[in-house]
Amino acid sequence: MASTEKASPRDRLLDAAARLSYRGGVSVGIEALCREAGVSKRSMYQLFDSKDTMLAASLERSIPWYDAQLAHPDPGNATPRERILHVFERIAQASLDADYHGCPYLAVLVELKDPEHPASRVARGVKESLGARFRRDAEQGGARDPELLARQLLLVFDGASARAGAGVERLDDGLAALTATALLDAAGMR
C-alpha cells in the first residue's frame, strides 16, 4: 500500500495469493496463504467463500497492472504494428527478471485445466482480451485476416511466455518480436 496504514486482511490475502501462486502454482495450501498474509483461516473464510474465489479475486485485481505492462507508452501516436511489437518487447524485458515465471494467466489455465474454475474464467478473459487487442490492431493495420493473425500472435505470446517462464528459452535475443514481425509481414500488416 502507498500509505503508512497496514493493508487490510483482504488485501494481504490477495497479495499473498498472487505471490505464492505465481511462484509455486495454484495448488498452494490455505495454511501457507494465511501464514504469508498474517491472517487466520477463519478470517479468510469470512472474506472469501473458498481458496478458489480468493485466487480468482487476486487474478482479477492484477488485470489493470498486467494490461499496463503490455500497453504501448504512447498508444495514440504508435502505429498498430508498433503497438503489437511493443507487447513482444515487454515480454522479452519481463523475462529477464530472475523471478519471471511466465504469464500468470496462462499458468493458471494450464495448471487448473478446469474451464469452469473461477480463476480459469478470469484467466481466460484476460487472454481473450489480449487476443481482441491484437485483432483490433491487426484490423487497423490492414492485415488480410485479422482474426487469424490475432490467434497466431497469441500463440507466439503464450509459447514465448511459457518457454521463458520454464527457463528453457531466453527472450533477450528478440526471438519473440522477430517471430511476431514475420507474422505481421506475412499478414500484410503495415
Automatic annotation (TrEMBL):
* Originating species: Streptomyces actinomycinicus
PANTHER family found in the cross-reference section: HTH-TYPE TRANSCRIPTIONAL REGULATOR YJDC, TRANSCRIPTIONAL REGULATORY PROTEIN
Top-level taxon in the UniProt lineage = Bacteria
What positions does the domain HTH tetR-type occupy? 7-66
Record's protein name: TetR/AcrR family transcriptional regulator
Q: Name one GO molecular function term.
A: DNA binding
Q: Name one Pfam family in it.
A: TetR_N
Q: Please give the DNA-binding region boundaries.
A: 29-48
List the SUPFAM superfamilies: Homeodomain-like, Tetracyclin repressor-like, C-terminal domain
Instruction: Tell me which UniProt keywords the record has, alphabetically.
Output: DNA-binding, Transcription, Transcription regulation
